[in-house]
Each structure stands twice: as structure tokens, then as C-alpha cells.
Amino acid sequence: MFHPDFKTRKPGTGAALFAATLFALATPGAHAQQQPSAQPAQPAAAPKPQAEQKPPPPSWQQGRTPEQASSTLHPFAIHVTGKAAKELPVDKLKVPAGFKVEVWAEGIPAARSLALGDKGTVFVGTRQAKDVYAVVDRGGKREVKTILKGLDTPNGVVFSKGTLYVAERHRITRYDGIEDKLDSPPEAKVVIDGLDPSKQPGHFWKFLALGPDGKLYFNIGAPGNIVMPNYMQGSIMRVDPVKGVLENVVLGVRNSVGFDWHPKTKELWFTNHGRDWLGDDSPNDTLHRVAKTGVHFGYPFCHQGDTLDPEYGKNRSCSEFTPPALKLGAHVAPIGMRFYTGKMFPAEYRDNIFIALRGSWNRTVKQGYNVTRVSFDKGKPKMEPFLRGFLQDPKADPPMWGRPADVLVMRDGSLLVSDDHNGIIYRVSYGKK
């Protein structure tokens, strides 16, 4: 007879076990317990039907109050196949006197982040598609090539010394010598993997930029509207592209989808999205300056530097955290940003910041939907619209016909602006009439 504790039983216990077994079998009570019941078998009760499980709400609804459950506010979908410029009111776009805006390239569905190659190729990442594009200028006519396909949210793109870096949801890869191989791109080489261990919905797409220290900087957004992030989320991080060593740069960042370095001070500046469902006018989306690494900018405890969260802000103080450099407006969705380093625009634009405001959805009267200029008066930032005209009716659904997504300073000093809603890139230039 096999005993379940056979492997751990002490030597010499076999006889005792055998005797105990015989005793149990000879005991009337024990034997009776092993007999089948004299009662007729009862039919098993039919299982009660389970309540139908409702699918979880989309992540953008997370954080709504019971009073907001019937709200009709919602994000706006892009045209996944893009739209031709001739179908759009491009003539409605407005820029300051002396500037000119025109369509630079079209037929780039979901065009988002921009990077400039050594030979003038403009590389375009996508958030809501799986492709990376290359736009090549052929004597004034732009040719669009789909160079990478089937990637997982390849939003971030950076080009440096012949290599294209692409930030997907879970990893960063590199493509060496790609500008000479646009028709047959090289195999991807992994810089770092495992950047999305939770695989949660939310803000998982990544902006990518190359810092003055030669390291790749990228965001890992919060996995929801208002949640407690884990040790990697709600942050801006950096990785050494050669050694693959990962470091935290700053924390408490709900979702930054754009950053750049001041040309003179080399300080990192970034945009950040405030949480939703705290009302039409709160909190502001923000612009931040990083004076030193390791600082915490407040999420999820404090918003816009001065507003405690109703849930996570209990027993906390906003004075614990680093405030923003500038409030940009509630729910305006600032994403791509660049310092202007060109020489085409007037001198007062030098070292200013251009920010693509993709525009609000979590607001009754919509705002944003423009490219904003941030200038500095004695070091203090101030903002004003620069490229306008995408917003048609602030109370309509949808309120706009296009959405700025990223900006890129070209070598001639002009400014490119991507529009992921339509798959178009615009060019803003300056020339005195």
C-alpha cells in the first residue's frame, strides 16, 4: 500500500501503519462510514445562470464620477487611411504676417512623430498604425515610402549618425544605415526590451529624443487616466544606446509625448497631459523644465502644480512636488515640441518653443488644435497661437478637421508640422514680401 508521505516517512513505521489500517477496518463505526448511503440519489441541482459579464469600460473613461457616467464626451478617431489635402479646408490655416503655410507631403496615414535624416529624409512614426514612413524630396516633389510594417505602436523616431531608432510600445530598436536602404531596410537590432511589463491599456506610446549626453530619452505614461503608476510608469527615462543601461530621469509625469533641450542651457523641457474628468477648466496641461534629474512633478497626487487630486491627493501637499514652468490650458493635449534653432524665422523666434496642441476632447467647449509658440520674457515663458485654423466649431462633434501632432525644424529653417488626423505634413516658411 502506497502512503502519500512515503518519501518523508521514517524507517520502521511500516508495521505500525499496517496495524493501524487493520484496526480501522475492524472498527464498526469506521467501516460504516465507508458504506454507500441507503438514501436514493438526489438529482444534482441545475447551476444558477451567472450574471452576464459586462466588458470593462475603455481606459479613457476611468476616473469618471457617477454623475459623469452619462457624459457624451469622448476621444476622436483619426482617418485611418488618411485624407487628401484637396478634400480639406487647408486655406483656413493662418500664420502670422510674413509667414506662409502649405502642404508639404500627404498620403501618410496616422503621421505622428518626425525625425530628419542626414541626407534630408524625413522619417515619420505612427501611434495608431503599425508603420514607419520615409519622405524623400525628389526635386521639390515628395515621395512617401512605407519602410517598416507590422510594428507595435511605433510612435517615437530618432535619427543619429546614420541610424534610425524606433520606440515601440515594449522596446526600442535601431536600423543602421537605413537612409541608403529605404527600399530594403536592414534588420532591427534591439537596444532595450521589456518596456511594457504590465501590458495595461492607457498611455503606452512613446516619444523618443536624443539628449546632449548621447542617450535616448522616452516616456512611459500612466496606464490609465488617474491611477497609481508602477516603478516604470508615469516617468521619463533614458537608455544608453550602446550599453542598454536604463535610468529614470524624472517621475510624476502622467503622459509626456514631447520633449527637447534648450539650445543654450541644455536643460530638458517637456510637455505633459493633465488628468481627465475634473471639469472643463481643470487641470491644465503643462510645460515643464527639468533643472535636475530625479525630481517628481506630482502625478497622481497633485495636478498643474497647485491642485490636489480628490483621491490620491488626500493627506498630501503640492509643495512636495516641482511645479510646471507654464500652464497651457485645460485638456489641450500638448504633444510634439521643439526649440526653434533655425535662421529663416525672425530673430525673436530663436530659441522659442513650438508645441503641437492636438486639441481637447474632455471639455464641453473644445480648445487647442493649433501650434503654439512659447517665447521668453526675461526668462519667463509666455504662449501665443502660431498656426491656427484646424478648429472649426468648438461645440461640434468633431470640432476640427485636422490635429497637429509634431513639429520639426528643417535645415533651411522652415518648420514641418504633422497632422495624424489626416496623414498630412505641412510646411511653415518665412519670407518678407
Characterize this entry briefly.
The protein is mainly beta and 433 residues long. It has a single domain, classed as 6 Propeller (Neuraminidase), CATH 2.120.10. It contains two helices and 26 strands.
First-to-last CA distance: 103 Å
Biggest sheet architecture: 4 strands, antiparallel
Please give the number of β-strands.
26
Number of domains: 1
Q: Provide mean pLDDT, rounded.
A: 90
Let me know the CATH homologous superfamily: TolB, C-terminal domain
* Number of helical stretches of at least 4 residues: 2
The strands making up the biggest β-sheet line up spatially as 1-26-25-24
CATH architecture label? 6 Propeller
Radius of gyration: 29 Å
Outline type: globular
Low-confidence stretches: 1-40
The CATH topology name reads: Neuraminidase
- The fraction of residues assigned to DSSP E strands is 25-35%
Characterize the structure shown.
This protein is mostly beta strands and 433 residues long. The protein has a single domain, classed as Neuraminidase (6 Propeller). It has 2 helices and 26 strands. The protein has a 4-stranded antiparallel β-sheet, with no helix packed on it. A 4-stranded antiparallel β-sheet has the order 2-3-4-5, with no helix packed on it. The protein has a 4-stranded antiparallel β-sheet with strand order 6-7-8-9, with no helix packed on it. The longest helix has 13 residues, at 14-26. It is globular and about 75 Å long.
Fill in the keyword field for this structure.
single chain, 433 residues, Neuraminidase, 32% strand
